[in-house]
Amino acid sequence: MFDNIGNLWVGTFNQGVDIHKTVTSPFMIHENQNNYGREGLRSVLALREDKTGKIWIGTDGYGLFYATSRQQAITLHAAFAASKRFPKPVVTCLQTVENDGLWVGTYADGLSFFNTRTGVIKNYRHQPENPASLAHNNVWSLQADKSGGLWIGTLGGGLNYLPARSDFFKHYQPEFGDPNSLSSVQIVDVLLDHNEQYLWAASEDKGLNRLHISTGLVKRYNAENPEVKERLSGNNLQCIFQDKNERIWIGTEFKGLDCLVPEKGIVHHYDTRDGLPSNMVNSIVEDEHGDLWISTQKGIVRFNPKSQSFLDLGTDDNLKNNQYNPRAALRLISGRLVFGGTNGFSMLSPGDIHPNRYAPKTIFTELLLSGQVVPIGPWNGRTILNGNLNEPGTIVNLSYADRGVIFEFTGTDYTKPAKNKFAYKLEGFDKDWFYTGLGQHRAIFSYLKGGTYLLKVKASNSDGMWGDPISLVIKVAPPFWETWWFYLLCLAASLGITFLIIRYFLEHQKSVFQEKNYKAEQKILRLQNENLEREIEAKQARLSASVLQSAHKNKFLADLKAQIQKIGLPNKDNWQRELRRVIRAIDSEINQEDYWEQFQVAFNQMHQDFVHELQQRYPGISTNDVRLSCFIRMGFSNPEIASILNVTINGVEQSKYRLKKKMGLDKDASLNEFIWQL
């Protein structure tokens, strides 16, 4: 039976089911490829093709090889120099030149020029006593310019340049405090710009450098760049490549792929979230159609810059456990691509790649709860599944107390089922799609809050073609403290508590206001009383002064009367009559009652009707007794009272004695204190 993508399914008798797949490996298979190991070819670090079509191969520990190809067959040869195997065991980089020349960079053994026709080798090593020698013996990258000069990236000595037909090296290294110098001495890859105006140098630890060849000034690009648009995703670089559109592609060790557009000063970032199988990018090469072929820690991927899409080709099944090495990638004159790895090399023809266009469907296979498979219908006293997981009307009924909820699923593409990918999103819980790793066929939720969710799952085939998602409704019963009626009860309680708190604060503010108001009233009353007391004191002072003044006036008139009476006048009747008239006028002024009435009115205003109260309590006292009490109340002394009443001091004391008897006071009691307390 043929399926919808052309695979042939064959049922056998007692031997199960076989499948014949229409999609085959994109990598070329060579009959003698398995013999490479016996011939000494192990980890391939460098690749370069010369004008004759030879593919020069630098290895880690086994020196230099070259390969020739005829149609689909590849023949491997060890490189010889002076009838001996090439003497440099670790070849890290290669650069071909005209006239049968090959520059060979090595680990810890400097730089060599190998004449491939004669077998003669010329070596260049670091000489501490010679400042014009190679800066370091760890040569990591080579790039020749049109003049025949050679740019050299060293791991530990920065950037070197060897002019054509010269043995003197020019050095470019970091200079402390100079931002226009090289950023690091650990240079892993160099790239000469197409117009040879700039030399790009990628460092192992401090980002990317662009050297302006004519001026010697360096511009740095790194992850700390203050210009966000020019900021790299990481500083640990593996490789750099310039495409036919002048864009600089940067492979990082941990942060994926960066694309620098120099004329715009913009850096674009790509990582596993965009389709890269790994964030460790080892090498980059471009095919004739402008697609980039990228080797990573998890195989080879094709990237289309126009569509921004990745096609994951996986690893070479013919190179078991192969991992690709940094900068070991080459596009041949024939258009084929070669990638060096830890177990030989892989070769493919981009035109032979036919992606699988079948978009697989997603199928739910099982639901597990706490490690147990959940069946359809009643289970453990409740019904979680009311139907098949893939039926439209099925609802998964869970509780907030359920833990370890697992949904398992698969896809319907069997071309390379191990490379199928899956993504899921739980709407109501996740904002973005979560992409599982290879071989991961499940969505795990340790805990779900109460509510209704929609689980969406989609699958892709091995070439990254995604199918439509499948959906499943999940309802999670919340705890009572998350139900609507509990929220309503809490709201009511909150409103009640809020009301009581507000009422308490209002009452408190009211009491505070009342207390402040009472204090203000007391203060006003105290001020009024103080003002009244001062006013009374002032009136009493004026009244006392008036009374004393009246007493002085009476005394003066009495003295005047006595003096007039002593005057001897002629015994004439008319003079005697006139004298008696003056004396009567004086007596009338002394005994004037209007004055005492005015005094009593003024006194009562100051002493709150004292006279009336005194007469009410003691109705038998006389007018003179009342006047005496008033004078005592005002604090007058006996001499002052005697002067006011025009009597002797003894007369005042006798009047006080009689008043004490009328009031019923003991003979030892103080009349003054008693009257002050009335």
Residue stretches low in confidence (pLDDT < 50, at least 5 long) are 19-23
- Fraction of residues in helices? 10-25%
Mean pLDDT score, rounded?
A: 84
Taking the sheet with the most strands, its summary is: 5 strands, mixed
Cα end-to-end separation = 132 Å
Q: What is the overall number of helices?
A: 8
Oligomer: single chain
Q: Structural class, from helix and strand content?
A: alpha+beta
Q: How many strands appear in the DSSP assignment?
A: 42
Report on this structure.
By secondary structure, the chain is of the alpha+beta class. 24% of the residues lie in helices and 32% in strands. It has 8 helices and 42 strands. The strands form 12 sheets. It has a 5-stranded mixed beta sheet with strand order 36-42-41-38-39, with no helix packed on it. Strands 3-4-5-6 form a 4-stranded antiparallel beta sheet, with no helix packed on it. A hairpin with a 2-residue loop joins strand 34 and strand 35 (382-385). It is elongated. The model is unreliable at 19-23 (pLDDT under 50).
